[in-house]
Amino acid sequence: MEFDLSWILLGLPLAFGLGWMASRLDWRQLRIENRHAPKAYFRGLNFLLNEQQDKAIDAFIEAVQNDPDTSELHFALGNLFRRRGEYERAVRVHEHLLARADLGVPDRQRAQHALAMDFLKAGLLDRAESALRKLYDTPFESEAAIALLAIYERSRDWSQAAAIASHLEASGQGQFGARRAHYLCEQAAKVPADQATALLQQASRIACQTPRPGIELAALQMQAGLADDAFQALAATAQTVPGAMPLIAKPLAAAAIACHRQNEARQILSENYAQTATLDVMDALVTLDEGKGTPRNWYLRHLEREPSLIAAAQWIAGEKLEHEQFHPQVQRALDHAVKPLSRYRCAACGFEARQHFWQCPGCQSWDSYPSRRVEEL
Questions:
Q1: Rounded Cα gap, residues 38 and 328, in angstroms
Q2: Interval 283-306: pLDDT, tens
Q3: What angle, rounded to 10 degrees, do the helices at 177-188 and 158-170 form?
Q4: What is d(CA 291, CA 98) in angstroms, rounded to the nearest whole number?
Q5: CA distance 47 to 51
Q6: Model-wide pTM > 0.85
Q7: How far apart are CA 50 and CA 47, in angstroms?
Q8: Which of 72, 97, 149, 238 lies 20 to 30 A from 315 at CA?
């Protein structure tokens, strides 16, 4: 059988034409898909900027379906789920990223951090702790350590919190001495007196500018009947942290009366009051002057320096009015009016409380309550 070359000559152009048509179809399909995916992505961004999170999520889901290999779309979608409180869906997205074998190291670390934030926001502290610890020796180590510190504070695991704070301070992430002192004070509240004393003394050495260890050590000594030691501890704290005198004044006066050192206490308080007239220091001076017939003069002296409704109410309480029969009603109205003024207010979140807190019950900030009351701010 003879081979006819004419068929080859006819087949080559036909094969070339079919190949060209197939390549055009492939390129056309690729261009359609590439145009479709960015449109969905940018549509999602537009919805996000207009705070239309539901529509943004739908657009990003469409973009992920069109281009499932793009990690950035997964990150955007997972973060959106977390912001909306859909933590289970956010976890699924970030776990899917971590399960991909082709994911690079930077993106894998980023996905691990995002997964840890999902668990933290969801309140799954044990799983968040485990996920955060995997971020050590990565660019996210500092953020992970700060998040772990928040976890241990929320769970009141003070020894672990102290270890994290020491690690952060050693790595140059800030000064955490005051926090570590607070942790020791919190631990001291849960142990016997001899151990508590050692912890409070250690706290004083770590953060000498923090008044809490000295105040709580003095309270412990007063309970043990060591009034003289308590007075010395409070006097030393007053000298080191004069700005905390409103918190020190009343226990200082009580300790001075118990150990008969009223004159020393009066001098310390008077010197501080001369610089800054505060209500609590005035009340401590009134306590020291009781029995001398002059304590009420302190209210008038305070009113000469500060227009204080609290001091006015305290002064009127012991005065005889022209229409004495109306005194109880007037006093009740004044006492009601001064209640909001005698509170303490958190400088971080504005949470108000009748007592002073070292850690705000609202925002969990440390040392955010000033030593002075609302009326004096």
A1: 75
A2: 898 888 875 656 667 777 887 788
A3: 170
A4: 75
A5: 6
A6: no
A7: 5
A8: 238
The amino acid occupying position 113 is H
Q: Which two tokens stand for residue 331?
A: 């006093």
Per-residue model confidence as pLDDT tens digits over 13-51: 655 555 545 444 454 544 444 444 455 555 555 554 455
Token look-up 């700060």 returns 146
Strand 344-345 to 352-353 pairing: antiparallel
